[in-house]
């Protein structure tokens, strides 16, 4: 009888032990998931850049990107990689690739974003930007915006600025202040790349300059926002605008039929957007109702072609950046008709803007061009007075 009782207890033990084991296993799993969802797992410091003190000990103050000192070390190290690779023949893209290969940033036991991911200016939804899961740096609303103008040279300016290690820019045009304002400021912020301390966030959307509601909306976001306007001879700009549209719609009427309201009288049709955008003085009046002139920088599209380093110097000064982008980064491409970034070491070709840039313009009758110049002249002179710059468009 006693042995029979032992067998019963033994069998009960065999039945209970697996259940207890499963119970504790599930308890551990749920506890782990709870803490991870609460964000505790992400709070563990990550060693990004091990700095050894003179006595041989590692300084814990340099660990984790949340610490300003470690951010400064990372930025400084990657900036040196960027700049040092520009030996008159290199580009930022190759510098970033080289920094990745040489292990500029070390993180034992974890997968870190590459320097290219940290400094690439595209959005963070895949592509070439930082992965969505990345937690390094923070997303901020732009401190500076290239607000215009279309076909003035805004893409060239953005690409030149993206050489700078302290600039993070959205590659695509967000169109927040003209098309998607109803989505809200947090949606806009979510589009921005992550930045480290000392870096500035930028975006460009050329249509902001001619959008009536945009100035008040930008001011409501941040009245200290720095605004950059790239302007170009309005006649040349209109032809370039037409050329771009023609490439997408070969059946477009002739330039002169769109530009002139009446061929006999020669009246200019200001309802055509290609003409209306060039009325810079009118658009600037709208912006000056909401921002002081000191918050705007006017970049010459012509000088951005003839002297890119000079114009980039002015832009970097305006943004409060060290003059990193200089004449050693550029060469003039005779075929395309504008500057390209010098080719990186080990690369077969330089970095130029896409095929859509530098298209040959159609021939426009000289009398039409003269009518346009006469039409724009008073607006141009008014714009010179308002901006304090004479761009010499005659």
Could you walk me through the main structural features you see in this protein, from its secondary elements to its overall organization?
This protein is an alpha/beta fold and 394 residues long. It has 14 helices and 11 strands. The strands form 4 sheets. The chain has a 5-stranded parallel beta sheet. Strand 10 and strand 11 form a beta hairpin. Helix 11 packs parallel to helix 14. The longest helix has 36 residues.
Summarize the structure.
With 394 residues, this protein is an alpha/beta fold. The chain contains 14 helices and eleven strands.
Order of helices and strands: HHHHEEHEHEEHEHHEEHHEHHEEH
Q: Segments where pLDDT lies below 50 for 5+ residues?
A: 6-10, 38-66, 77-133
Radius of gyration: 29 Å
Instruction: Please report the number of helical segments.
Output: 14
Sum up the structure in keywords.
394 residues; alpha/beta; five-stranded parallel sheet; two-stranded antiparallel sheet; 14 helices; 41% helix; 10% strand
Q: How would the blueprint of this fold be written?
A:
Layout: H1 2-37, H2 68-84, H3 92-101, H4 115-119, E1 138-139, E2 144-148, H5 154-161, E3 167-169, H6 185-190, E4 194-195, E5 200-204, H7 214-221, E6 226-231, H8 234-248, H9 255-259, E7 260-262, E8 267-268, H10 273-276, H11 280-288, E9 296-300, H12 301-306, H13 308-318, E10 330-333, E11 338-341, H14 366-387
Parallel strand pairs: 2-5, 2-6, 3-5, 6-9
Antiparallel strand pairs: 1-4, 7-8, 10-11
Helix pairs in contact: 2-3, 11-14
């Amino acid at each position: 009888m006693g042995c029979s009782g032992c067998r019963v207890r033994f069998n009960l033990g065999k039945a209970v032990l697996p259940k207890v084991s499963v119970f504790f296993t599930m308890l551990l799993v749920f506890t782990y998931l709870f803490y991870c969802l609460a964000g505790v797992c992400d709070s563990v410091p990550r060693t990004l850049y091990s700095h050894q003190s003179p006595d041989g000990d590692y300084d814990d103050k340099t660990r984790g990107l949340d610490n300003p000192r470690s951010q400064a070390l990372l930025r400084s190290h990657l900036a040196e990689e960027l700049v040092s690779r520009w030996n008159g023949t290199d580009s930022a893209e190759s510098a970033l690739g080289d920094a990745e290969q040489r292990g500029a940033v070390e993180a034992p036991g974890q997968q870190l974003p590459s320097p290219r991911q940290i400094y690439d200016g595209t959005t963070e939804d895949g592509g070439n930007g930082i992965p969505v899961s990345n937690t390094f740096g923070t997303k901020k609303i732009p401190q500076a915006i290239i607000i215009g103008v279309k076909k003035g040279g805004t893409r060239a300016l953005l690409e030149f600025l993206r050489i700078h290690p302290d600039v993070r820019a959205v590659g695509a045009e967000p169109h927040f202040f003209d098309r998607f304002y109803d989505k809200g400021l947090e949606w806009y912020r979510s589009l921005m790349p992550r930045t480290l301390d000392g870096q500035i966030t930028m975006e460009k959307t050329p249509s902001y300059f001619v959008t009536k509601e945009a100035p008040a909306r930008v001011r409501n976001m941040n009245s200290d926002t720095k605004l950059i306007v790239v302007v170009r001879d309005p006649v040349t700009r209109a032809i370039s605008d037409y050329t771009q549209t023609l490439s997408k719609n070969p059946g477009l009427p002739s330039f002169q039929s769109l530009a002139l309201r009446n061929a006999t009288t020669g009246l200019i049709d200001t309802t055509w957007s290609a003409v209306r955008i060039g009325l810079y003085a009118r658009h600037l009046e709208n912006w000056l109702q909401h921002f002081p002139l000191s918050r705007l920088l006017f970049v010459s599209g012509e000088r951005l072609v003839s002297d890119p380093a000079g114009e980039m110097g002015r832009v970097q000064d305006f943004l409060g950046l060290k003059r990193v982008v200089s004449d050693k980064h550029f060469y003039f491409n005779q075929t395309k008709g504008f500057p390209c970034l010098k080719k990186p070491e080990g690369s077969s070709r330089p970095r130029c803007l896409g095929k859509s840039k530098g298209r040959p313009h159609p021939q426009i009758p000289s009398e039409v061009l003269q009518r346009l110049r006469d039409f724009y002249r008073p607006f141009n002179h008014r714009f010179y007075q308002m901006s304090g710059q004479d761009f010499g468009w005659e």
